[in-house]
Design brief:
Chain A is of the alpha/beta class and about 450 residues long. Chain A is about 40% helix and about 15% strand. In chain A, helix 16 runs antiparallel to helix 18. Chain B starts with a strand and ends with a helix. The chains are: A alpha/beta (about 450), B alpha/beta (about 270).
Chain lengths: ~450, ~270
């Protein structure tokens, strides 16, 4: 598809990284469920292992189906390449493990998915990697938290649970002043709503389980590199990132930044991280996520359309105390959202129901279309009541500190008829109202 | 490895092996706004198959000191000086796009030092359209996107370069942006395009060659289309090798280009 510019987003969502299969003519991407790939001869085998030729050897390291997904997500993000991983958590771990080790330090937004917070606060600390958490809007705090051993800054495009919009241009500039990369979790926004690389981020990852897959069927992650961060310059100025800019004994003294000026991070992440940690994606999973990515533009438009309808409805309900959606001018990130997320702020948000925990539970149990479960980004609408599920061990004071009230409800708006979703919510609100005093 | 040429540091990637000037030497010369990393798979293959390899960063590009040299002729004179610094007496020259012009002119100026000439993605003359030249001057990032799009034949080249999972459009754009940003205060893209556009001595240079020459064309090349190679192929009496790729043939068809180079350098 040559031309004066790259193909557009919707075209890339369908075509990037894939062509009709030369062996069979299959138009859809084949699922290459093969652990290994035959060498043409001994010389070919040796040249693949020695990175003299490109190709697939063993599916823990790379696989043709996974490669299509990797190229496609990289294309949609405007990146240089990507690595598919077993989960979003595996993608985050791969990014960190490629750059950091014992004695390293991370500066992270405090508004994080619980799993990411656990990894940074508890698990990585056990391996000698320390994290300082900063409120995403505390710009001075980001700068002040950087230490000589800091290896990266990290945040979510839309932070958990309050949907704080990360000021990527400003935080990226702070990172780059210190020759540090900014890693962004873009799960809630997807490249359809925002491309973090356009705003200065250097690395992006997704829990592809959510909107990229879009159907609630698989667990997967994708880590994308912009190719823009200059690891050599950072190494020369600070001594950091010897992992990429100095000889690596684990690969015959290879200097990854010499092998690929813009692909060094991904080379090391794949050649070391996937090889040794093994957090790879199944080709079948990659295929299912590809099926989702092909309709991502259509689905995201509908997610946003439905979410705006639901938010508008809830805003007029007396039982609803407040809504945390950045498109509302009452949200603290409203101005940032207008600047960075003009197409919409995703379809996952929380609102506060007036009343008790019991009323919150009654509301959830009365819903018929919304499914009560722990996931987001499904084509089906989802709901969860944090006070009685994910945060049930907390008392009301602790909940308040976490930004959660007994009446906080999180919704993930799906692709159903918006009128049906509103009717479902309307009925459940009445039930919750009647549950007062129980 | 780093060499000192005319008092300035020049970087050459040696294919993952220590450089041994006693081995038959292959010199890889990149094109406009590129660096050595467009050659790394090929360079590694030749370095591990009996050759001494120098995949260069031209002056002002990547890891080599600036300033960039003014024209093809100056770069062709710089090349033998680099061979001197590396202790190489004779070498095969393999150049892509702008690099192919440098290789051609160097082979004409110092024919005694060149054993083979291989020109990939070439055209002689290599005129740049007025519109693109102007865009490269006023909106270099837009021009990078234009050239990047024109340089790729498709959106699914397998196997990806330098390894699976690479998105070639994005990686090549990132490389051009990186090389452009490496010379603050200078529009290197416009400079390199000017180097290509101004070079008028190609056909005359062809007459001075003493070594075998090959031309590798991308059958879907939109930057230097196959028909633009006719004059130089005739002038060199060159062997023509075709690969199914666009202008970015080393990344779009690394195996096919390897086969072509193995044949051309055999």
């Amino acid at each position: 598809m040559p031309g004066a510019s790259d193909p557009g987003f919707d075209t890339l969502a369908l075509h990037a990284g894939a062509a009709p299969d030369p062996a069979t003519g299959a138009r859809a991407v084949p699922i290459h469920l093969s652990t290994s790939f035959v060498f043409e001869n001994s010389e070919h085998a040796a040249s693949l292992f020695n990175m003299e030729r490109s190709g697939h050897v063993y599916s823990r390291i790379s696989n043709p189906t996974n490669a299509v997904l990797e190229e496609r997500v990289a294309a949609l993000e405007g990146g240089a390449g990507a690595i598919a991983t077993a989960s979003g958590q595996a993608a985050l771990h791969l990014a960190i493990a490629t750059l950091a080790g014992a004695g390293s330090h991370i500066v992270s937004s405090s508004a994080l998915y619980g799993g990411s917070h656990n990894l940074l606060h508890y698990t990585l600390a056990r391996f000698g990697i320390e994290t300082t958490f900063v409120k995403p809007g505390d710009i001075a705090g980001w700068r002040a938290a950087i230490r000589p051993n800091t290896k990266l800054l990290f945040g979510e495009t839309l932070g958990n649970p309050g949907l704080d919009v990360l000021d990527i241009p400003t935080v990226a500039a702070i990172a780059h002043e210190q020759h540090l990369p900014l890693l962004v979790d873009s799960t809630f926004t997807t490249p359809w709503l925002m491309k973090p690389f356009d705003h200065g981020a250097d690395l992006v990852f997704h829990s592809a389980t959510k909107f990229l897959s879009g159907h609630g069927t698989v667990i997967g992650g994708v880590l994308v590199d912009s190719g823009a961060f200059d690891w050599d310059a950072a190494h020369a100025s600070s001594g950091r990132f010897a992992e990429l800019a100095a000889p690596y004994d684990g690969f015959h003294g290879m200097v990854f930044s010499e092998e690929s000026t813009v692909g060094a991070f991904l080379l090391r992440a794949r050649r070391e991280g996937l090889r040794d940690f093994g957090g790879c994606m199944s080709p079948h999973t990659a295929w299912l996520i590809l099926q989702g990515v092909e309709t991502l533009p259509l689905r995201m438009a509908r997610h946003i359309e439905n979410t705006r309808r639901v938010v508008e409805f809830l805003a007029g309900q007396p039982m609803v105390e407040s809504i945390g959606y950045p498109e509302l001018d009452t949200h603290p990130s409203h101005a940032l959202a207008k600047r960075l997320l003009p197409r919409g702020c995703g379809s996952v948000f929380s609102f506060n129901l007036r009343g008790s925990r019991e009323q919150g539970k009654a509301f959830i149990e009365a819903l018929k279309i919304f499914s009560h479960l722990a996931n987001v980004g499904d084509c089906r609408s989802l709901v969860i009541h944090p006070a009685s599920t994910t945060h049930f061990r907390m008392d009301d004071v602790a909940l308040a500190q976490a930004g959660i009230t007994p009446g906080t409800i999180r919704l993930s708006i799906g692709l159903e008829e918006a009128d049906d979703l509103i009717d479902d919510l309307k009925r459940a609100l009445k039930v919750a109202e009647k549950a007062a005093g129980r | 490895m780093e060499l000192t040429v005319d008092g300035r540091t020049a970087y050459a990637y040696t294919g993952g092996k220590s450089f041994d000037a006693a081995l038959p030497c292959v010199v890889f010369i990149h094109g406009a706004l590129n660096d050595h990393s467009v050659w790394t798979l090929l360079a590694r293959w030749f370095a591990h198959h009996g050759h001494a390899v120098l995949a260069l960063d031209l002056p002002g590009h990547g890891r080599s000191d600036g300033p960039p040299l003014a024209d093809v002729e100056a770069l062709a004179d710089w090349l033998p000086a680099l061979l001197d610094a590396a202790g190489v007496r004779k070498a095969a020259l393999v150049g892509h796009s702008m690099g192919s012009l440098i290789a051609l002119e160097a082979a004409a100026r110092a024919p005694q030092r060149v054993e083979r000439l291989v020109m990939l993605g070439t055209a002689v003359p290599m005129k740049v359209s007025d519109a693109l030249m102007q865009t490269s001057l006023t909106q270099p990032l837009k021009a990078i996107d234009m050239v990047n799009a024109f340089s790729h034949a498709g959106t699914a080249s397998k196997p990806s370069y330098p390894g699976p999972g690479s998105w070639l459009h994005g990686a090549d754009r990132a490389l051009m942006r990186r090389i452009q940003s490496g010379q603050p205060g200078l529009n290197l893209f416009h400079h390199d395009f000017g180097v290509c556009d101004r070079y008028a001595g190609g056909l005359a240079a062809a007459g001075k060659l003493r070594c075998p020459a090959s031309v590798v064309i991308g059958s879907r090349d939109q930057m230097t289309s196959p028909k633009q190679t006719t004059a130089i192929v005739d002038a060199l009496n060159a062997r023509v090798l075709s690969v199914d790729a666009g202008h970015s043939m080393m990344s779009e068809a690394p195996d096919a280009v390897l086969a072509a180079l193995r044949s051309a350098l055999a």
